[in-house]
Design goal:
Helix content is 3%, strand content 49%. The protein has a single domain, classed as Jelly Rolls (Sandwich). It contains one helix and 18 strands. By secondary structure, the chain is mainly beta. The chain is globular. The chain binds 2-acetamido-2-deoxy-beta-D-glucopyranose. The site of 2-acetamido-2-deoxy-beta-D-glucopyranose has 7 residues, from strand 14. Keywords: Hydrolase, Signal. This is Family 16 glycoside hydrolase. It comes from Delitschia confertaspora ATCC 74209.
Length: 220
Amino acid sequence: MQILSFPLFFLAFIAATPLNPRAVQTLIPKSVFDSTTNLEQYFTYNYPWGTDHNGAARMAPSHVSLSAGTLTLTAQPVTGQKPATHGGKQIPIHYLSGAVGAKQHFTVPANGGLAFSGSFQATTIKGTWPAFWLTGVNGWPPEIDMAEWKVSGKISFNTFNTSSQVAAKDVSYRSPENFHDIRTELRHVNGKDVQVKFYMDGKLVTTQVGKGFMGKAMYL
Ligand SMILES: *[C@@H]1O[C@H](CO)[C@@H](O)[C@H](O)[C@H]1NC(C)=O
């Protein structure tokens, strides 16, 4: 049997910083992938809630590795796994994959904002779905897809108000063999909503608004 193991992601760094000029504070430093000690200070393995979600991949810490300040997440086809259960349905598991989730939760406060930035090399190989997102701790939405890479050779930037009211922007993802800078800025608006600005390689790609996201805790 041929074993395929392909990298989903290389993250050279990730940094999260509040956008309040009066109190700028780094929440996750750029040195987070310099050592396993640093990684484990800020991140847990798997999804924040466990190993399974709504897809055919089960997360496994064996698919997370660190080298020279870069985090690598890989996926591998697998057989013989027990199915996942999601929304009362059984989902067959066909892959093991790496994932990390931040230990802390992120909330856009009434007076400020948050910036998430990282340098990513991500594949668009068929069967993969690398993703970097924020999602609600206490119910769903909020969900902000800071970047999702698609087999179509596209990268997607999305904000969900509900499962059917979604702002979605797909753009071409050129030269996946190179690292690209992704930055997402979240700011409060009108005391309820959150404005989301999505940047790739220093250019603003799109601006979206998350309904009622202010003050709601999110997983990274
Ligand atoms: C989501 O809700 C916000 C706030 O009401 C609104 O500005 C935005 O346009 C909505 N998004 C979509 C896709 O309708």
